[in-house]
Amino acid sequence: MKRSWYATPYALWMLLFAVVPLLFVCWYAFTTPDGAFTTANFREFAKPRYVGVILRSLKLALYCTAVCLVIGYPTAWFLAGRGFNHAQSLVVLILLPMWMNLLLRTYAMMTLLDDNGVLNAALQALGLGKIHIIGTEGAVLMGLVYNYLPFMVLPIYTVLKKMDYSVIEAAEDLGCNPLRVFTRVVIPMSVPGIVSGVTMVFMPAVTSFAISTLLSNGKLRLAGDLIDYIFNQSSNPNRWNIGSSFSLMMLVLILISIGFLRKVDPDSEGGGMW
Amino acid sequence: MVQDMRLIELKGVCKSFGDTHVLHDVDLYIRKCEFITLLGPSGCGKTTLLRIIGGFDMPSSGEVLFEGKDMTGIPPYKRRINTVFQKYALFNHLNVYDNIAFGLNLKTPEQLGVKTKKEKKDEIARRVGRMLKLVKMEGYEKRSTDALSGGQQQRIAIARALVNEPEVLLLDEPLGALDLKLRKEMQLELKAMQQQLGITFIYVTHDQEEALTMSDTIAVMNGGRVQQIGDPKRIYDEPKNAFVADFIGESNILDGVMLQDDLVKFSGTEFQCVDEGFGTNAPVDVVVRPEDIMIVGEDVGMLAGTVESVIFKGVHYEMMIRGEGAGESILWKVHSTTMQPVGTRVGMTIVPYNIHIMRKATTADAVPVAQAAEEEA
């Protein structure tokens, strides 16, 4: 039997549950409920409230990716350091929240950030007064970062861990001070990890669903929530068609961002390294 | 060549990692433009010594002087020293050209003797071009380092270090990963480069033949101590102790008694030799190189024995000859261009200046040998 046959179950699965539904999505996106061809569905999103949602999604996903990178890179660098023997257990600690359900984690976040929650209780105990954070974009951003940070740390950690220490010594030897070792060798050599991490944080963040609704008390919708709303709650008779066209647009958006990342690191598979 | 200018001087250098003492009180000086080899078995501390000179490790005690000034605590990037690493350590995110230009790119235009950034770029291109020519890799500028063979990567690593025109080049077993033929070629090329450029080379290897081929000076190390320093011929002809004799080339090492000046007894026979100052009836180690034993007719030799095995080694035959004589019978290793069949009874002769006498490992300066033996056991 040829080796490629072993992938048959996966191929069937993908065909049935990814390719065929995608074709349906395309079909709905370009038709009216009567089945006539139209591009009107896409024009729906010129409406300011929809444009606003897309921009907010992009903005929060970008912020989330940036924050994850800023927090995640130093963490990965620390974990991958020589002579640090507890890396394995700390990696497990970083992964630990992922063993819990996303909704559960987000509900926990709600109680933490609530006006009468743990955070505010702590602040009050310190005599700093209350802050209002639940319901704001800040709370949503915290929720996104909390959920997606491990996806940034792990690929960067993997790349840094594999890096030969003599390369760093070679850079020092050739005249790099510690800062230049970092900017000229360590960061460029860890680009594949960064690209993976950025992809794996940005993609789910831009299409994230539920996190925003929960942490903003339903006030701030992101693209994922909007699609959910259109399909499930809207009274528009075209809701399947409009929802499909919106999903399709998000897909194109993600493809563009992957294309951009592939330019940065041509060897990456768009984040599929693990 | 300035013969006696001490470029680098190590004084009482010790290094421990936790409870493991890697270097014991190493004193060594390196002259300008010298090709010095640190030679020893794995674990003898030679790489650690090289790393201390390079600034990658700090000595636990003792000092490292560069042109008389203490270098301890000065980081690698501030030393006029470059290193060729054992596994090359090329930057795989850069192509061949950018790997070689790496060190130069970090310098200011003034440091390269030019004024503008444009001139710096041209100067770098000129120097990288010259290096590629030196290591015979012209035309490989745009290649990825991953696409190079081991020998090619090695050349790029050498070019990347040499292009910075260091005072000293450190080489940590740079030829270890190459096949024998390429290794021999590179040995000669490295030696030629060193003479052409007039740079001090400090070379680490465990291959005694490599050391003998390339070096002006060899420092034989074992058990974290320098056993002997000298030019290759001196090290080979006059090993200071049994360890050096055994490690450099092949040797017959025998127990003997120095009866008086110029007269030694071993294998139940008295031999004339040329060593003095051991006192009378002093126990000594006697070293005789296999090629210094001449095979003669069975009744005219100083010793007699029977050939037990013969191996053809290319240039010569290696024969194991079981000696006859009072007390224990010695198995002699003899190299000769004429073959004696197994079972032949032969005579053996050794001329006085080929008998090397060294103090037994009970005296102070031979202690490391005994210690090394313990460590290996």
Shape of chain B: elongated
Low-confidence stretches of chain A: 269-274
SSE succession of chain B: EEEHEEEHHHEHEHEEHHEEEEEEEEEEH
Major sheet characteristics of chain A: none
Quickly give the structural class of chain A. mainly alpha
Helix percent of chain A reads 55-70%
Concise description?
Chain A is mainly alpha-helical.
Explain the overall architecture.
- The complex is a heterodimer of chains A (274) and B (377).
- Chain A has 274 residues and is mainly α.
- Chain A contains 13 helices and no strands.
- Chain A has a single domain, classed as MetI-like (MetI-like fold, Orthogonal Bundle).
- Chain A has helices at residues 8-29, 40-43, 48-79, 87-95, 102-113, 118-125, 137-162, 165-173, 178-189, 191-206, 211-215, 223-232, 239-264.
- In chain A, helix 1 (8-29) packs across helix 13 and helix 10 runs antiparallel to helix 13.
- Chain B has 377 residues and is an alpha+beta fold.
- Chain B folds into three domains: 6-237, 3-Layer(aba) Sandwich (Rossmann fold), CATH 3.40.50.300; 251-289 and 351-377, Beta Barrel (OB fold (Dihydrolipoamide Acetyltransferase, E2P)); 294-349, OB fold (Dihydrolipoamide Acetyltransferase, E2P).
- Chain B contains nine helices and 20 strands.
- Chain B has helices at 46-54, 96-105, 117-134, 150-162, 180-197, 208-214, 232-237, 242-247, 367-376, and strands spanning 6-17, 20-31, 35-39, 61-66, 69-70, 81-84, 168-172, 200-205, 217-222, 225-230, 252-260, 263-266, 269-272, 282-288, 294-296, 303-312, 317-323, 331-336, 345-349, 356-359.
- In chain B, a hairpin with a 2-residue loop joins strand 1 (6-17) and strand 2.
- The model of chain B is unreliable at 362-377 (pLDDT under 50).
- At the A-B interface, helix 8 and helix 9 of A face strand 6 of B.
